[in-house]
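Please predict the structure of the following assembly.
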Amino acid sequence: MTQRTDIRRRLEEHGIQASAQRLAIAEYVLATDQHPAADTVLEVVAARLPVVSRATVYNTLHLFVEKGLLRELVLSEGRVVYDPKVEPHHHFVDETSGAIVDVPWEALRVEGVPELPGLDVSEFQVVLRGRRRARRRDG
Amino acid sequence: MTQRTDIRRRLEEHGIQASAQRLAIAEYVLATDQHPAADTVLEVVAARLPVVSRATVYNTLHLFVEKGLLRELVLSEGRVVYDPKVEPHHHFVDETSGAIVDVPWEALRVEGVPELPGLDVSEFQVVLRGRRRARRRDG
DNA sequence: ATCGTTCTTAGACTAAGTCCAATCTTCGGT
DNA sequence: ACCGAAGATTGGACTTAGTCTAAGAACGAT
Ligand SMILES: [Mn+2]
Ligand SMILES: [Mn+2]
Ligand SMILES: [Zn+2]
Ligand SMILES: [Zn+2]
C-alpha cells in the first residue's frame, strides 16, 4: 500500500514533519466525508494506534488547520468540527441528527457581497438548517 | 417611565411571567444592538440588579429563545451569543475584534436554496468573515 | 553514537454551561 | 389583606471541551 506513503508525502509537502500519531490522525481526518469533532478523531485514532493523547489530537488538528489541510467549522453549540474539504462550499445542518452536509459552492448563488459597505469580506458561506428529506429510493 | 411597563407587557404577551430578574435581563438583552454572550449579560445585569445568579441568566436566555424573543447564534468557537433581532438577517464576523455585525436580509440575494435536492431547509443565513474597513468619515 | 530540535504525554487547569434541592416570589382566589 | 400552590431563583456541585505545562521520547543531521 502506497496509501501511507501518499499521506506522508502530503504532510511533508505542507511543511509538516511526519510521526506515527500525525499519520494516523491524517489517515482518518483527511479522508473522511463527515465533519468530525476532536473527540471523535481521538476515538477513531485511538482504536488503531496503541497510544495517542488528547493533547496530541488537538495539537495536530490545529497544526493541520494552520497548514491549510483542514478547516475548522463552528456551526452548533459546543461542537467545533473539522473539514478536510478546504475549498469553498456551504453547509447544511440537520436539526434532528446534528449531521453536517456539504452543499457544493455552485449549488447556490450569492449576490451582493462585494457591495457591502464598510466590510472587507475575506470569506463567506451559506449556513442552512432543517431536516434531511427521506432519501428517495431511485432505480 | 413607561419603559419598564412596556417590557413587562412584552414578556406577558409572550407567555412569560415577569420577575425582577427577567425584567432586568430583558431590559438589556432585548434592546442591545450588539450580540452579547451569556457572561456579558450576567455582568451588565449584575451591575444594576442587586443579585442575579448565573443559573437565572442561562434559564432566562433560554426561555426568551424558546418564546421567540431572542435567537441564539454560534458563529465562533466557545461563544454562544444572543440576538434580539429575530427577523432573518445575515452576519459578518470581524476577525480582528470578534465583533458581530448585522447584514440586512435585503443586502444579499441567495438563489438556489429551494432547489437543493434532499434538503428541507427551514432557515438559512450567510455568514461572512473579514475585517471591518476603516470607517470612512463622511461629511 | 551524539546532541539539539521537535513531538508526545499525563494530568492539572480553565471556561462555558448544566443540574439540583432548598428557598423565595408571585399571583389568583378568598 | 392573606394564603397556598405554582413558578422562579439561588449557590454550588458537576460536566465537558479545550488549553497548558513540564518531563520524557523520537527524530535527524552530523
Ligand atoms: Mn480550536
Ligand atoms: Mn444554550
Ligand atoms: Zn464541509
Ligand atoms: Zn444579528
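The mean pLDDT of chain A is 94. Residues 17, 19-20, 37-39, 54-55, 58, 78-80 of chain A lie near DNA strand D (CB under 10 Å from a C1').
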